[in-house]
Amino acid sequence: MTSISPPESLRCINADSREPAGYRAALGDTRAALLHTDPPYCLLTRRRKGGDLRDTRAHKKIDQNPIVRFETVRDYRAFSEAWLSSATAHLTPDAPLIIWTNLLGKEPILTAARGLGYPHLRGEYVWGKRTTDKNANEQTLRVYEVALVIARTPAPPLAPGDLPTVWAVVGGYDDEGEAKRWGGHPHHKPFSVLEPLVRTYSRPGDTVLDPFAGSGSMPSAALRLGRRPACLEIEPEWAERVTHRLRETAREEAQRASAR
Ligand SMILES: C[S@@+](CC[C@H](N)C(=O)[O-])C[C@H]1O[C@@H](n2cnc3c(N)ncnc32)[C@H](O)[C@@H]1O
Predict the structure, then answer these.
(1) Alpha carbon nearest to ligand 1 atom 27, residue
(2) Is 80 exceeded by the pLDDT of residue 47?
(3) Looking at residue 132, what is its pLDDT?
(4) I want to staple 222 with a disulfide (CB 3.0 to 4.6 A). Which of 13, 111, 207, 229 is the partner?
(5) Ligand 1 centre from 100 Cα, in Å?
(6) From the CB of 189, is ligand 1 less than 6 Å away?
């Protein structure tokens, strides 16, 4: 597929997704037709009753960027409201919200979305993550990451000729073997896990917004499927890596298209 964006025009904006400035820089006056994002998960700081950290070593490790921990679920709810209200101001009225989360994050995210006029949970897209735990007859999958598909309106009924909506996928952390190439982000998502969502909830040429780009799996999937990616990331190193990734991906897609 020919990339619709020239490589040098692609970039990830280094910005805080709670603030409006990054969205203006990423989108200008364009409104995105899909929000597809993977915000920090609702991971809580481990504390003893007295307030001390429960396990300082583990806390130190997990607190290294780009992993964020929250003191309480209430803090996570406030965080979700802050970024979601900035992000939804840059969407078309029909744009669905696809928000990846761990199981603890579902309620705070749904509450924030409802408060912003998105009351309909159309469904949960479940990623059964392949583990290395297996024997000859059995394979263990772990489910702790789901993508909530949320909208202002209920899903329209499917017509008899329509394809069914995909609500589950099975895949390993890095089935395509590309996580390391793009920095080995702890929350890397493989293309095969994201592809059904991008295809179902956007059309070629649409702008797809990701305010928490990480290593860029979501904007890169959008680009590979002929959408226009717009993205933000708060960590400057990761924002730079994503810019590099998008430009490389656009070049590779263009080469692939010209070889056909
Ligand atoms: C769960 S990770 C995203 C991983 C990404 N989907 C990937 O495949 O690599 C969340 C990202 O959000 C970034 N982040 C955290 N708080 C942010 C904020 N307020 N604004 C923008 N980015 C933020 C973190 O640095 C982290 O890279």
Answers:
(1) 214
(2) no
(3) 87
(4) 229
(5) 11
(6) yes
